UniProtKB/TrEMBL annotation:
Coiled-coil regions, chain positions: none
Transmembrane segments: 36-55, 101-122
Domain G-protein coupled receptors family 1 profile: 1-123
Compartments, as annotated in UniProt: Membrane
Lineage of the species this protein comes from: Eukaryota, Metazoa, Ecdysozoa, Arthropoda, Hexapoda
Organism: Nezara viridula (Southern green stink bug)
Primary subcellular site in the record, as a coarse category: membrane
Gene Ontology CC: one annotated term: plasma membrane
Signal peptide per UniProt: none
UniProt keyword annotation of Ribonucleoprotein present: no
Membrane disposition: Multi-pass membrane protein
Single GO MF annotation: G protein-coupled receptor activity
Keywords, ordered alphabetically: G-protein coupled receptor, Membrane, Receptor, Transducer, Transmembrane, Transmembrane helix
The protein's name: G-protein coupled receptors family 1 profile domain-containing protein
């Protein structure tokens, strides 16, 4: 059972009126269990799901040579296919840029939330 108790701070340098703080009043093993569950559900699982999902997207964006909607063999070509090749290279470059952005999003999520959860572990 989770309960909170209030207490007043006597160690402050200034005199305060009606200044109280809440503190969890459970034993250390429950505190450690709560911290572990909180880290698992708020950091590890989202990071894992995001990494797996974005890895699948990045794999498709980075490795596939055919571009959806591209006409193979015919289509609008200008002077021997240079227009089609330039367009395909531009789309491939854009897809790789998007893939790099997805990797950056996962890394930024991991780095930004790591200190918060690391402090929770250290406390």
């Amino acid at each position: 059972m989770m309960t909170l108790t209030t207490f007043s701070r006597d160690d402050l340098r200034i005199e305060t009126i009606l200044f109280t703080q809440c503190e969890a009043s459970w034993d250390q093993s429950l505190e450690q269990t709560f911290s572990a569950v909180k880290i698992a559900f708020l950091y590890v699982l989202p990071l894992l799901f995001m990494s797996v999902a974005y890895f699948q997207i990045v794999k498709v964006l980075w490795s596939s040579d055919n571009i959806p909607g591209q006409i193979v063999g015919g289509g609008s070509c200008r002077r021997g296919g240079t227009f089609a090749n330039a367009s395909a290279e531009g789309q491939l470059r854009s897809r790789r840029k998007a893939a790099k952005m997805l990797v950056a999003v996962v890394i930024m999520f991991a780095l930004c939330y790591l200190p918060v959860h690391l402090l929770s572990i250290l406390r």
